[in-house]
Amino acid sequence: MSKYQVDLTNCDREPIHIPGKIQAHGFLVAINSKTFVISYISQNIKEFIEKDARHFLGKPINELESYLKISGAKDQLTNLLNLANNSKNFDSVNPYQITIDQNSYNIILTSSNTELILEFEPGTSDLNFDVQKTIGRSVSEILSGKNLNTLLKNAAFEIKKIISYDRVMLYKFHEDGHGEVVAEVKNDDLEPFLGLHYPASDIPKQARELYKTNLTRIIADVNSTSSAILTFQDENTPLDLGNSALRAVSPVHIQYLKNMGVQSSFSISLLAHGELWGLIACHNYTPRFISYKARDASKLIGQILSSALEYRQEEENTENLSALDNAATELSKYIKLDNEISGALTSHSATIKDITNAAGAVLVFNNTISRIGITPNEEQIEDILLWLKSNMQNNIYYTNNFPELFLPAQNYSNVASGILACSLSRELNELIIWFKPEQLEAITWAGNPEKPVEQAENGSMQLLPRKSFEAWTQLVKNTSVRWSNKEILLVVKMREEILDAINRKANEIRLLNDRLQLAYEELDTFSYTISHDLRTPLSTIKTYSELLLARNKSLDDSAKTILTRIVAGTDKMNLLIKEILRYTQLGKADIEAAKINMQLLLTEIKDEVVAGIKPENLEFTIGKTPDIAGDKTMIGQVFTNLINNAVKYSSRSVPAKVKVEGIANHDETIYSVTDNGLGIDVTYYSRVFELFKRMDNVKDYEGTGVGLAIVKRIVEKHNARIWFESGLGIGTTFYIAFKN
Ligand code: ADP
């Protein structure tokens, strides 16, 4: 353990409620509550009544009374003590005003275990202020504050009016125990302390405990020497001064005040929900005693402020919570109603960002990253996603010091010091992340909080409050405001709703798919039946037309032409029907995949296609032919169609050039069929593969518009891709990429 730690622990252990000393501006007498015998007395009584303190120890209270020369009725102290003993409530008697030797005093009565304590303090101070009159107005002034900040500022202002100290600060304790000056009213010549932060060690733990029961404390003059409390009793049972008004404060604290140039100090506790919320800390730069009444009025203001704090803080919290709740309700409505999840979460007036107090949120869904508010950039988000993938054990993960865990985030800690992540799908790496910025990029500390202990003048490491009070800046880096339970709760709830909606939508899509599949099958069967049934009457028409032509020599020329056209029409229709049958059959056919010798297949197709074309009219090249896996018949159909088209639509080029070749890549084998023919207008790009679609520039070429639809169907069945490049009047290349 280092010396620093020893010193600090000592500070926390210093028994400040039993210091055995009081401040010198008053004197103290404690009597046994049963016997009324004086059991403790402060040494400085001699300064007030010129009689040695020891004289009174062990004597009854009357003995003191006779020396005090209290004006008015006899036995006042005894009567007061009897009253106190019976009522047990000192508020009604405090302060008890007496006059000793023409000086007015307030007696403040408190108790400790077995003793009743009488503290005599000056009845007057240099304040010419009628507390009673103004207190009502002060309270209504304070409560007129619309928000917490004005409330605090008003309170500081009213306290300053009552006690006339040079500086009144409202000091709020943070979660980690350190304090911040959140409101301040001061004389113009003083440097402001507003916004300064004080380390937790400035007010030791046991002092805080005491502040919860004894709500005000005054140190009238830091330079006066405190007076010892004498007793005839066992030295080990010092008088408990927890409730005392004159209690001397720790020399460490006195030194602390002296370092700041403060000569007297007064503080009032502020409690919210039974816990110390903060202090009203008042400093004066000359010694200044505050009368009991003014202290009591300040205490009252402190108490009123405390209850207002509870209420206002709660109100502010509730406002925030209901804003989050409202956003969550709105969002869940969109999740239920919208067709599309990511739109529901990001595109309305309430978004995922609004169900927390985050500054930004990111939705990673369906391979897209949607950002709302202040978030890291896409590249940084990708890094965070990777990190989360290996570090996120549960569906929800959160931290308020992310850059400490993931070092690259230190470069953008102003955006992502706090992250809250909620996984939607682990397999797809889909999730939502909320971001909170660095809480305070720089806190202005009053003095160095790391160094409350300093080297004493004699060189030893003593516990001395630090001497320097210049603002010292400590960077509270990489930390955001914490994620509250409410935020986490709403995120968990929303996650369930999203998953529910995703499931529901997936089911709907599956159902639609099934129905679509059924419709396709029905359509295929229908087309197949129709086409099939058309073939018989069609061949009857053709046969009879041909018969008529052959046998009827008497037919005139126009009748012959008509019959010839009928025969040609039936041929065309036959071709169309054949193609449709091929197309519909493909819907049902299963693939029998096997390795295909492409050299062989392509040569056969070429021979078939070029038969009847003079070699000088067509340059047909077959380049490299890497083998592929697939259904041989179907792949044959694909290349027959593509090559037929290439030859057909380049037949008017002189000479026509057609080239087929394949290239095997790392994971795909890509075949291309190139011609130097008509070309395809790119505005029709997506329609070329549709059934019965033919381009405007091929009207005087034979065709049905079914071929490429068949090709597309086969290609899809093989999980391959097809596309083309073309230039009008230049030529066309179709590509098919087969997976290896
Ligand atoms: P078709 O029987 O009309 O050739 P396809 O389905 O095979 O029907 O082709 C559809 C349409 O695409 C064709 O009518 C034509 O307009 C266009 N097309 C296909 N291949 C080519 C090509 N190599 N050059 C120019 N146009 C083509």
Distance between the termini: 68 Å
Small molecules bound in the structure, each named once: adenosine-5'-diphosphate
Strand content: 15-25%
Overall, the morphology is: rod-shaped
What does this structure look like?
With 740 residues, the chain is of the alpha+beta class. The protein folds into five domains: 9-15 and 125-226 and 247-316, Beta-Lactamase; 21-122, 2-Layer Sandwich (Beta-Lactamase), CATH 3.30.450; 338-440 and 477-505, Beta-Lactamase (2-Layer Sandwich); 513-587; 594-739, Heat Shock Protein 90, CATH 3.30.565.10. It has 18 helices and 29 strands. The chain has a seven-stranded antiparallel sheet with strand order 1-11-3-2-6-5-4, with helices on one face. Strand 17 and strand 18 form a beta hairpin. Helix 5 (131-143) packs parallel to helix 9 (292-337), helix 6 runs antiparallel to helix 9 and helix 9 runs parallel beside helix 14. The longest helix is centred in the last third of the chain and has 67 residues, at 485-551. The radius of gyration is 48 Å and the shape is rod-shaped.
